[in-house]
């Protein structure tokens, strides 16, 4: 259960994140995938993460303290159509440094838009995590946007693609920030990770 969620700090430099003295879980995904909405839904704090960041805005690593016990981290999204090469390279450097060097990181959730067929950019990011040994799970977002049948179809298609990459399918959750769907499941999974 999440009883308390507070903003701690924003960073552009992964080396300057808070002291890695407690378990940490991160969220990432394509811009507009619904990451901020999901973080707000999960924590029950309406504007904890800022929704709908525009491309070109500073890319920040945002730390939140949960229950005075663990860190939840909102990472800058990928896949903006129109960002400069510099911005993209900056993002890559920042994210790869954070994900590979953060000693207290227990897992990263990769958010996937449940309305879409498998997207190359998401699969590539998942593959990169696998290669680097970063433990990743999937969250399919915006499930309320279409029928359950359509959501299931897209989820299945994505999982099938992951079978081409990994022996074991990643853990996954289907959520809707709009309806509160998947909240308990995601929190339960995080609690297991942070208590290990
Ligand atoms: P971010 O850029 O990944 O942080 O995405 P946001 O959380 O800002 O969401 C992008 C857009 O999708 C906003 O207009 C949200 O209201 C909408 N959105 C996010 N999650 C959901 C959801 O679960 N259901 C519906 N219907 N819309 C959502």
From TrEMBL:
Keywords: Cell cycle, Cell division, GTP-binding, Magnesium, Metal-binding, Nucleotide-binding, Septation. One of its GO terms (molecular function) is metal ion binding. The keyword Lyase does not apply. Residues 21-196 form the EngB-type G domain. Its cofactor is Mg(2+). Necessary for normal cell division and for the maintenance of normal septation. This is Probable GTP-binding protein EngB. It comes from Algoriphagus boseongensis. The lineage of its organism: Bacteria, Pseudomonadati, Bacteroidota, Cytophagia, Cytophagales. The gene is engB.
């Amino acid at each position: 259960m999440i009883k308390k969620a507070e903003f701690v700090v924003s960073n552009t430099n992964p080396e300057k994140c808070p002291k890695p003295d407690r378990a940490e879980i991160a969220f990432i995904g394509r811009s507009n995938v619904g990451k901020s909405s999901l973080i707000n839904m999960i924590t029950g704090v309406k504007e904890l993460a800022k929704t709908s960041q525009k491309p070109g805005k500073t890319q920040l690593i945002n730390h939140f303290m949960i229950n005075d016990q663990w860190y939840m981290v909102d990472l800058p999204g990928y896949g903006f159509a129109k960002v400069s090469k510099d911005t993209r390279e900056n993002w890559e450097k920042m994210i790869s440094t954070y994900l590979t060097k953060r000693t207290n990181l227990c897992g990263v959730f990769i958010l996937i838009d449940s309305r879409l067929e498998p997207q190359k950019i998401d699969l590539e990011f998942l593959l990169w995590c696998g290669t680097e040994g970063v433990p990743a799970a999937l969250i399919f977002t915006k499930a309320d946007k279409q029928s359950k049948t359509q959501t299931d179809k897209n989820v299945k298609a994505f999982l099938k693609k992951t079978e081409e990459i990994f022996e074991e399918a990643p853990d996954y959750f289907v959520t809707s920030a709009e309806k509160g769907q998947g909240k308990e499941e995601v929190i339960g999974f995080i609690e297991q990770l942070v208590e290990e």
